Automatic annotation (TrEMBL):
PANTHER family for this protein: NUCLEOLAR COMPLEX 2 AND RAD4-RELATED, NUCLEOLAR COMPLEX PROTEIN 2 HOMOLOG
InterPro entries: ARM-type_fold, Noc2
Localization per Swiss-Prot or TrEMBL: Nucleus
Name of this chain's protein: Nucleolar complex protein 2 homolog
Keyword Metal-binding annotated: no
Superkingdom: Eukaryota
Keywords linked to the UniProt accession: Nucleus
Feature: compositional bias, Basic residues: 634-650
Length: 678
């Protein structure tokens, strides 16, 4: 401020005396009282003559006392305060030495100082401002310049800050709530700032590796995130997005963080999290393909785990969402329009059914959600009946799979066999196909078949394969039931009817094998059932008997387990496409042959045989031209008469010996390939 006052005095000295005198005369006319006051207190200001510039300069040098000099200002002006608020001074640049010192203090075995923690958090904030601010400058106490310092600061916070905060709060041994620690009030502000910056950094990162590191760090900081309601909601919003769209490792870490934050504030956040996660699940399961299946399955399993945190809270959500599915189905049944049917026959609807069936299966030993099994089964069975045409066989099979898993896990009888054997009786498998498909259709990622696909022979093959697998699995699941012969009676009758009418050998062979296994198991149960002495309405004794039969093993269950092992191996082969790789072997190209081999080739006056070909014909051999490419030589017709067999044998032996000698001289870089190697 002293510099400023000096500038003001200089400007006053440089004023024109003539104009200054005129302004004082005006002041006398305008405000005579103020003029009199100046005349009494500072007469020198008013008593001066208008001279030339040279005279004025001489007078200034001679008599400096006659010139008015304002004294120094003793108060802080408003202007200086405004400048300080606008541009805070930077304390200093962060160096690698400073980071190393902080790192040592964070790892010290003694007491952790609050100053160290706040300095580290401010350094992290400075690193964030370097990335997020428009001009890349920090307005805080510290400034981060250079990528090495930036990386060092981030690495220090990720690796050492969580343990240091835990130690400072005294949570190492107790593991209590951070808010109950006596030092939490001191670190609350810096901690809130740090978590804000961490979420900003998490939102701006796209690299999977860096995301993984930051999510692991956030998982450690979840205890402190739960202390702030606003931060918790922001973190959950970001984590749910990563849980539904990220790479596999990112998804898992995001879910673990969601679970930890929700558990710490279960009463306040569980409703919000369940709703947000379900809506995200439905949004991201609209399209199903082999690449998206793993992600959808992971979301479904993790969402089931979230709903099992509190079944009383979950009941309200599950009841509401199952009711919504029922309303969509009712509208489709009552109003026979394409739009209403499409609201049911889509992947979002089917995946929702799958989710609730999984949840009811997992919680079958607890009573809270069991009343919802009946309405869910009714929705699934009526979904099958909505459009029971051949085009929607894939959807039928998906729904039946859901029912089979629900029946098995919840130990509930659900009539599934009628929907399976209905396919055998409702479709004519003797009908000739109009198109030939190289491979059978895969129903795992489709709900509806095109009309062109119905004309292919692959459609009938796929239907029989799927029916065989589902019938075998369901009958194996109930093979130890005391009522097995009665459950499978109608199915046996309809399979026999199919065998009489169907003329396709491949289809009848599979169904006959299945029929034999079912009948064998029925006879086994009947034999065991004839030995019982208790009444059939005695539930406890019946359950105990069925458990003993299951432990002992049934013929059908043993057959299914063996078949399932082979089927899994075949599925893995399809996924890895081993057969395709083995079918398309790479082309073999040979290196250039030296001039000596070419000379010997000329001397022998015939194509040089390097090695026998991989084809079945042993007489064909590869030859190498001047360029080095491999080709099959053209065999010239021999004009000479046939010689004795003995002579030809000796010549062949001689040539083979010479060829072996030449090959031994130079190692062959190409090894023999076989299908087994792939």
């Amino acid at each position: 401020m002293k510099q400023k006052s000096a500038d003001v005095s200089d400007s006053e000295e440089e004023l024109d005396p003539e104009t200054h005198k005129k302004s004082l005369e005006k002041l006398k006319n305008i405000d005579p009282d103020f003029y009199n006051f100046l005349e009494e207190n500072d007469g020198n200001l008013l008593n001066f003559d208008v001279d030339s510039e040279d005279d004025n300069s001489d007078k200034e040098d001679a008599t400096e006392e006659t010139v008015h000099k304002p004294g120094p200002l003793r108060g802080d002006s408003d202007e200086s305060d405004f400048e300080d608020e606008d541009q805070k001074p930077v304390k200093g640049k962060i160096s690698l030495k400073m980071v190393s010192q902080w790192q040592t203090e964070l790892q010290s075995e003694g007491k952790i100082k609050l100053v160290t923690l706040t300095s580290v958090i401010k350094a992290f904030n400075a690193a964030m401002l370097r990335v997020t601010s428009e001009d890349g400058t920090s307005k805080g106490e510290y400034k981060v310049e250079g990528s090495s310092v930036f990386n060092a600061v981030i690495q220090m916070c990720v690796l050492y800050l969580p343990a240091a905060i835990k130690k400072y709060l005294g949570m190492e041994a107790s593991g209590k709530d951070p808010q109950k620690c006596k030092h939490f009030v001191k670190i609350k502000g810096p901690l809130l700032s740090y978590l804000n910056d961490l979420l900003k950094l998490l939102g701006g990162v796209t690299s999977e590796n860096i995301l993984t590191v930051l999510l692991k760090h956030l998982h450690q900081m979840c205890v402190y995130v739960s202390c702030f309601g606003r931060i918790s909601k922001q973190a959950l919003k970001k984590l749910i997005t990563l849980w539904s769209t990220g790479e596999e490792t990112v998804r898992v870490l995001a879910f673990l963080s969601i679970l930890r934050i929700t558990r710490n504030q279960q009463q306040n956040l569980l409703d919000l999290v369940l709703k947000a996660m379900y809506m995200t699940y439905v949004k991201n399961c609209k399209f199903v393909s082999p690449s998206t299946w793993p992600g959808i399955n992971f979301m479904r399993r993790s969402l089931v785990e979230m709903f099992t945190l509190d079944l009383n809270v979950s009941y309200q959500h599950v009841f509401l969402y199952i009711r919504q599915l029922a309303i969509h189905l009712r509208n489709a049944i009552v109003v026979q329009k394409i739009e209403n049917r499409q609201a049911v026959y889509n992947w979002q609807f089917v995946n929702s059914l799958h989710l609730w069936a999984n949840l009811l299966s997992v919680t079958s030993n607890k009573p809270q959600l069991q009343p919802l099994i009946y309405p869910l089964v009714m929705i699934i069975t009526n979904t099958i009946k909505l459009v029971p045409t051949h085009q929607y066989y894939p959807l039928r099979f998906h729904c039946l799979e859901i029912l089979m898993n629900l029946a098995k896990e919840s130990d509930t009888f659900i009539p599934i066999l009628p929907f399976l054997v209905e396919v055998l009786t409702s479709y004519d498998f003797n009908k000739k196909h109009k198109k030939v498909s190289m491979k059978p259709l895969d129903f795992s990622c489709i709900l509806r078949l095109a009309k062109s696909q119905l004309m292919e022979n692959g459609f009938k093959d796929a239907v029989i394969e799927r029916l065989y697998a589902l019938l075998l699995e369901y009958t194996a699941n109930v093979s130890y039931s005391i009522a097995f012969p009665d459950i499978t009676l109608l199915a046996v009758v309809q399979i026999k009817q199919f065998l009489k009418t169907c003329s396709v050998t491949n289809y009848t062979k599979k169904m006959r094998q299945l029929l034999e296994k079912i009948e064998e198991n029925s006879k086994f149960i009947e034999r065991e059932r004839s030995k019982i002495t208790f009444a059939l309405n005695d539930e406890k004794m019946t359950t105990a008997w069925e458990t003993s039969i299951k432990t002992k093993g049934t013929p059908l269950l043993t057959f299914f387990e063996n078949w399932n092992k082979i089927n899994k191996i075949q599925k893995r082969k399809k996924i890895t496409k081993n057969d395709d790789l083995a079918g398309t072997l790479p082309m073999i190209k040979r290196p250039k042959i030296s001039e000596e081999l070419n000379k010997s080739n000329k001397e022998n006056k015939g194509p040089l045989v390097l090695f026998p070909s991989d084809s079945e014909d042993d007489d064909d051999h590869f030859k190498v031209d001047d360029v080095g490419a491999v080709s099959v030589p053209k065999v010239k017709k021999q004009k000479k008469k046939k010689e004795n067999k003995k002579k030809t044998k000796t010549i062949k032996a001689a040539t083979n010996e010479s060829e072996d000698d030449t090959i031994d001289n130079k190692d062959d870089i190409v090894q023999d390939l076989s299908v087994n190697d792939w």
